[in-house]
Design brief:
Layout lengths: L1 H15 L5 H15 L10 H14 L5 H16 L7 H5 L6 H5 L8 H11 L10 E3 L16 E3 L2 E4 L1
Antiparallel strand pairs: 1-3, 2-3
Length: about 160
């Protein structure tokens, strides 16, 4: 099995320069690792949705640690699962005034291998926020409403609330 896995990865790396975006290679490698460990996704996302979530993370968590990137992705997934928010990833991300990167265009930031892996880890249940559904940077936030929330955790520049 290890030999087949290595042959598959080498083949994909060769094909990468011809056909495949790098983030897809990293995503497939992560998926194969998770599949071998039999870990189930807490939410099912297709390739386009994972890329969209990765781009949101790239825009919202630029300059943050990997844990901070996973935390941002986890908040989005927690919202999809929460009945107070739209029940689709796209619905949550594009909900009016939900994320500044949608309004300022940073949602179009290219996903990186790090943000892609962070999105996949959150999809498979990693949640350093302990089920938070809000995050913000208190140093730059201009929203008065968000400042009424009681944060329970800080990771990097972001605080998280339930």
């Amino acid at each position: 099995m290890d030999r087949c896995y290595k042959i598959l990865i080498v083949s994909l790396l060769v094909l990468q320069s011809i056909f495949v975006n790098t983030t897809q290679i990293y995503g497939l490698e992560y998926y194969l690792e998770k599949k071998n460990n039999k870990k189930e996704a807490v939410i099912n996302l297709n390739d386009e949705e994972i890329i969209l979530l990765s781009r949101l993370v790239a825009g919202e968590a630029r300059g943050e640690s990997y844990e901070g990137q996973v935390a941002v992705a986890a908040v989005v997934i927690n919202r999809v699962k929460d009945s107070r928010f739209p029940n689709t990833l796209e619905g949550v991300i594009y909900q009016k005034n939900a994320f500044s990167v949608v309004k300022n265009g940073a949602i179009n930031t290219e996903a990186t291998s790090s943000t892609y892996r962070a999105a996949q880890e959150a999809m498979y249940g990693k949640d350093p926020t302990n089920n938070a559904i809000y995050f913000w940077n208190p140093d730059i936030s201009t929203c008065k409403w968000i400042n009424t929330l009681n944060p329970h955790l800080r990771i990097g520049n972001h605080v998280f609330a339930k």
